[in-house]
Amino acid sequence: MKRLLTFLTLSLLAGCASNPTVPENNITPVLTHTGGQTLGDSASIYWFTSQQNRPVSLADRVMASDYGDYRTDYRWRDGKLREIKREGKQFDEQQIKPFSLHVRYDTLGNAVFQRYTLGDELIPLSSDQLQQLVQEAKHGTDVVKQQRKDDQSLVQGFWKQGQFYRCADQRPLKVNFSPELPDYVQQQLLEHQQDGYMAVIGQIRRGTLTAAALLLLNDNQPTCLAAPVLLTN
Question: Which of 13, 23, 76 is closest to 49 using CA atoms?
Answer without folding.
Answer: 76
